[in-house]
Design goal:
By secondary structure, the protein is an alpha+beta fold. It has helices spanning 3-22, 24-31, 40-46, 60-63, 74-95, 119-132, 153-178, 204-211, 256-263, 335-346, 385-403, 420-471, 478-507, 512-544, 548-582, 586-589; strands spanning 57-58, 65-72, 102-105, 111-115, 137-143, 146-151, 184-187, 193-199, 217-221, 240-245, 248-253, 271-278, 294-301, 306-307, 311-319, 326-333, 353-357, 360-363, 374-378, 408-416, 475-476. The strands form 5 sheets. It has an 8-stranded mixed β-sheet with strand order 10-11-13-12-18-17-9-14. Strands 7-8-2-20 form a 4-stranded antiparallel β-sheet.
């Protein structure tokens, strides 16, 4: 046998073996009773330690739960921004000795009224506003001793987009804290709405109450001298591990709730244990006792000196102090916050400052110098420029989420009963299996051995499809089941083309080997064209659609990729084996 034949065989066995490996957690998940599947600690306990952590998720329509559509009042955020800018302008005008009678926000509008003793004073105030905030203000109107300035349209659109993104980030952090393992939260394209799906969550009133709370941002000093966790090293429960970060001990776990429960009340007097999520390791980092991603403890001073209520702005900037421009997060505090922050950072230079949002440590940078009304946070020195920029953008949104919480309101509410989901699963599964069984019978009856080969490829295709969905953390919905059946049907269609072409080549008098080679070669681009055009359609559906449409599109695209592999690689390898063993393909294809 040729070397390429062996390599193809190894490739197929490797892909199938990896797919089976990745479906182990899903097998454990679906064997649990429906009311226990969202218990992350139970799922982790029952899943083999060598298995991956991701499993195939069930959508809201298949297991019941709550769906909410929340609207973000971005207009109020702009009005609040105008009020803060008015306060800033009063302070700046006083510092620069620019006379004014009154500087105030316009009631109900994101605008500021600048009133002077004369038209010249009003104009000087408007010039000051545009000088201090060149990207923000434009003159709306000017009459007598009063000039009205408002935000520029492009700036307003960006700020509204950021406000909704901040709300999504804050809500996602909060939902993660609840422990709802399969929650989905996303912005509704082209609007200020946010769609939240909580599969398995049964209390809509509690969901609305928790989602309506305001995110709390705090700045706390990290106590790197604390060694108290060394005392509990030998009494850790299952799933929590002990590690050392230099000379500082810490605990880590992939279950945040379990980690917080174990450390509750164990911190030294004046301290508390914070929790930080680690999603990636630096290339030269020491291997931790927990698999990435995981949660780890940080010892923090319990006293909160500064909160997000005193933050006025946070944005991504480029810092070139080291000779190379790199993204950093710049932030601005109000007067009271600047005084407190100056005292806090000035007394703790060289120590780490934890940025805590919703009780979760978002980052803990080292304080390089005293910070007063503004400063910057340097991120990810070992990461690529794009990764640093993305991290800086995310952190800026988190900081502004605490400083500028826009009100949210419930626009739509839908509860899917727990009994409806299993009924849909049962009907959808039986329908899919019945259709596939009929296809299998037809292929085996009409194409005989080659039809049986196509049936094997069809089973492999379904296996790869489910494994890929589990690997990517996709959610299986009822439209997704329809997409699965459709892609399997397209896989059958590809095999029909191949078999018919081989028959034609055999009738033309070619040898078995020649018929197989010609059959696959001549239909290759036909199969590729059909799959690529369907994939493009799926990509457009995914990009433009929402909810069930996206679920269908994801399943369709993954299934098409699997179909290409099974139709062209798997079936050809099996038929090659038959040809080599029997010397003829007529029995297989006739």
């Amino acid at each position: 046998m040729t070397r390429s034949w062996w390599w193809r065989t190894i490739l197929i066995l490797g892909v199938v073996g990896y797919a089976v490996y990745y479906l182990v957690p899903s097998w454990v998940y679906f064997r649990l009773p429906a009311d226990e599947r969202n218990d992350s600690s139970l799922l982790e306990k029952l899943t083999p330690h060598w298995a991956p952590k991701k499993h195939l998720n069930l959508g809201l329509d298949l297991q019941g739960g709550i769906e909410l559509v929340m609207g973000v009042d971005a207009d109020k955020a702009m009005r609040d921004k105008a009020m803060r800018r008015a306060d800033d302008l009063r302070r700046i005008a006083g510092d620069k000795k620019v006379p004014f009678k009154e500087i105030k926000s316009v009631q109900g509008q994101p605008e500021i009224a600048l009133v002077g003793a004369s038209p010249a004073e009003a104009k000087a105030l408007a010039d000051l506003a545009q000088e201090q905030f060149p990207d923000n203000f434009r003159v709306v109107s000017s009459e007598g001793n009063q000039t009205i300035v408002g935000f520029q349209d492009a700036w307003v659109r960006k700020q509204k987009d950021d406000t909704v993104d901040q709300a999504v980030k804050s809500l996602r952090n909060r939902i993660d804290k609840w422990g709802v393992s399969e929650a989905e939260i996303k912005r509704i394209r082209g609007s200020d709405g946010i769609q939240i799906q909580l599969p398995g969550f049964k209390d809509p009133e509690r969901a609305k109450q928790l989602l309506g709370q305001t995110a709390q941002l705090e700045f706390k000093i990290v106590d790197d001298d604390d060694r108290s966790l060394a005392k509990v090293e030998h009494e850790l429960p299952q799933g929590i591990h002990y590690g050392m970060d230099g000379a500082m001990p810490y605990l880590c776990s992939q279950d945040r709730l379990a980690l917080e429960k174990f450390t509750a009340g164990k911190a030294p007097e004046g301290d508390e244990y914070g929790v930080e999520k680690v999603e990636a390791l630096a290339p030269d980092a020491k291997s931790p006792p927990c698999d990435v991603p995981y949660y780890r403890t940080l010892t923090l001073h319990a006293k909160t000196e500064v909160t997000g209520d005193q933050l006025t702005d946070a944005r991504v900037q480029l810092d070139s102090s080291g000779g190379i421009q790199k993204p950093v997060v710049g932030f601005t505090l109000d007067r009271e916050g600047a005084e407190k922050f100056g005292e806090l950072t000035g007394a703790n230079i060289g120590k780490r400052l934890a940025i805590v949002l919703d009780g979760m440590v978002n980052s803990a940078p080292v304080i390089q110098s005293k910070i007063t009304d503004s400063g910057q946070i340097t991120l990810g020195g070992l990461k690529s420029q794009q990764e640093i920029y993305q991290e800086a953008s995310d952190l800026a949104l988190v900081l502004k989420a605490g400083a500028l919480p826009a009100p949210v309101r419930i626009l739509e509410e839908r509860t899917v009963g727990a009994s409806l989901g299993p009924e849909l699963i049962r009907k959808g599964t039986w329908g899919a299996l019945a259709g596939l069984f009929i296809v299998w019978l037809f292929m085996a009856f009409y194409y005989r051995m080659s039809g049986f080969v196509a049936d094997v490829a069809l089973a492999v295709n379904g296996l790869l499809l489910l494994a890929a969905m589990a690997m990517f953390g996709s959610t299986l919905t009822l439209p997704g089941i329809a997409g699965t059946v459709l892609t399997l049907g397209m896989a059958v269609d590809a095999n029909v083309l191949i078999n018919e072409r081989i028959r034609e080549e055999l009738r033309a008098g070619k040898t078995s080997r020649g018929a197989v080679d010609a059959g696959y070669d001549k239909v290759f681009w036909t199969i590729v064209d059909g799959h690529v055009t369907a994939f493009v359609a799926g990509a457009i559906l995914y990009y433009t659609g929402t909810g069930p449409v996206k679920g269908f599109a994801v399943t369709l695209m993954i299934g098409l990729a699997a179909s290409m592999f099974t139709s062209i690689v798997v079936t050809r390898q099996i038929i090659d084996v038959l040809v080599r063993r029997s010397g003829t393909v007529r029995r297989a294809a006739a």
